[in-house]
Task: inverse folding
């Protein structure tokens, strides 16, 4: 059975609080019991000292223990005299022990069930011994259990007070106090548990609500609702999670829009040459157009245009996935640029375009790059200028560098590109209106491929207006150290 996050948070908070409350309750009980025990021990010690002083005073008056040994009631009075507590009523054991003959002390204190009393008064746990440790009031069988305290008079030991082990008796008020404190602790612990349950419920709701909202939004996102966004209500980790979720949703929405445009553009670009090719083939099949060398050349041109489009799509897909193979070495890009210009010289001449190469740096430390991919980059850009520059125009290729960067600029003359469209040139299938004639322009994938190649070399590429009146493409590569 799946439990919700709120139940888990509630149980976690409640269990934590219960453990803390139980620990505090046990510690407070232990501290109170310990303090109360120390109080009882201190009170008993004080009573023993008082009893020693009382017995010492009695010996000073009589000069002997003989009168005391012969008067059991006097012994009991001395015991009670040492107790600072005022008895409104005499203790219940006085009548019983007073009637017992002999000097056996303490008397037997068994209750009706034959069990020894749990709390024995101090008066029933003491014995009196002579200086030679013979018994005055006591029991011979209990001598081994005694802890002896000397009774001194005039600097000499005149007797011993023996104390049997056991817990001292407590006053009724003390016992009632302990009982009230125990009940108070129990009620406080119960109240803390109730408050912790309420607090755990509130915290589980407050923390569980944004998490539940995020879970619901994630389900919607999984179903394709990319427009969903979460409100950012805090600056903590949950708020950061909501911001990250919104950024992810925005990226997925943008990616989905790009995918749809990609599919639509591909279908459009493929449908047009296929429609032309189909029309020409049907014309040949119906005999409307005779089979001739010109007809075959036209069909071949359509097939080659379709082949170029599919090849561009393949190259772009490879560069998007990073699957283009790059064999990078330290090279001089100027040599590659010179070779590409020489290879396209005939096409530039056919269109009466004047091409200039300006090298503003004599030496280069070298560029860590793939020579074949750089040649593909340069040729795509040069063919782009070749296709869109008016006949009789001019193309200027300049190369410069500083301490860490190589700058390459390919600028051409008119026609130019509107400033609003410069940032869109590297988007796939994007073409300005003036270039939609397929006799001059391709499918709009060349600059997108160029952007991927530059990015694979950790460089930057941008488009700007040319001083010659056309378009300038600026490339920056980091030089090898």
Result:
């Amino acid at each position: 059975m799946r439990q919700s996050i709120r139940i888990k948070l509630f149980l976690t908070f409640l269990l934590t609080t219960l453990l803390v409350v139980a620990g505090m309750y046990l510690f407070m009980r232990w501290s109170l019991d310990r303090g109360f025990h120390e109080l009882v021990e201190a009170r008993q010690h004080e009573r023993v000292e008082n009893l020693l002083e009382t017995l010492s005073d009695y010996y000073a008056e009589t000069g002997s223990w003989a009168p005391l040994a012969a008067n059991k009631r006097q012994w009991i009075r001395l015991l009670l005299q040492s107790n600072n507590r005022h008895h409104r009523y005499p203790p219940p054991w006085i009548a019983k022990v007073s009637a017992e003959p002999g000097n056996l002390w303490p008397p037997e204190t068994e209750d009706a069930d034959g069990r020894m009393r749990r709390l024995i008064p101090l008066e029933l746990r003491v014995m009196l011994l002579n200086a030679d440790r013979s018994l005055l009031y006591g029991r011979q069988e209990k001598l081994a259990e005694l802890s002896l305290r000397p009774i001194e008079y005039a600097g000499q030991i005149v007797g011993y007070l023996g104390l049997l082990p056991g817990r001292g008796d407590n006053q009724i008020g003390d016992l009632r106090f302990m009982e009230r404190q125990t009940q108070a602790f129990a009620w406080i612990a119960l109240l803390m548990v109730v408050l912790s349950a309420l607090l755990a419920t509130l915290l589980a709701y407050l923390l569980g609500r944004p998490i539940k909202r995020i879970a619901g939004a994630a389900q919607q996102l999984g179903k394709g609702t990319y427009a969903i966004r979460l409100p950012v209500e805090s600056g903590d980790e949950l708020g950061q999670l909501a911001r990250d979720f919104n950024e992810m949703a925005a990226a997925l929405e943008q990616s989905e829009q790009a995918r749809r445009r990609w599919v639509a553009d591909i279908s459009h670009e493929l449908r047009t040459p296929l429609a032309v090719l189909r029309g020409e083939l049907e014309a040949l099949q119906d005999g409307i157009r005779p089979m001739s060398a010109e007809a075959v050349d036209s069909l071949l041109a359509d097939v080659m245009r379709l082949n170029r489009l599919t090849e561009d799509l393949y190259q772009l897909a490879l560069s998007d996935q990073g699957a283009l193979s790059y064999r990078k070495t330290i090279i001089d890009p100027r040599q590659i640029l010179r070779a590409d210009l020489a290879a396209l010289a005939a096409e530039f001449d056919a269109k009466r375009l004047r091409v200039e190469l300006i090298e503003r740096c004599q030496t280069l430390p070298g560029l860590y790059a793939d020579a074949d991919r750089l040649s593909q980059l340069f040729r795509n850009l040069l063919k782009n200028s070749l296709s869109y520059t008016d006949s009789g125009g001019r193309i200027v290729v300049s190369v410069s560098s500083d301490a860490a960067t190589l700058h390459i600029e390919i600028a051409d003359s008119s026609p130019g590109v509107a400033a609003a469209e410069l940032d869109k040139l590297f988007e796939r299938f994007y073409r300005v209106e003036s270039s939609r004639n397929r006799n001059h322009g391709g499918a709009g994938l060349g600059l997108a491929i160029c952007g991927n190649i530059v990015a694979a070399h950790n460089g930057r590429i941008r488009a700007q207006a040319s001083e010659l009146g056309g378009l300038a493409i600026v490339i920056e590569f980091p030089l090898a150290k």
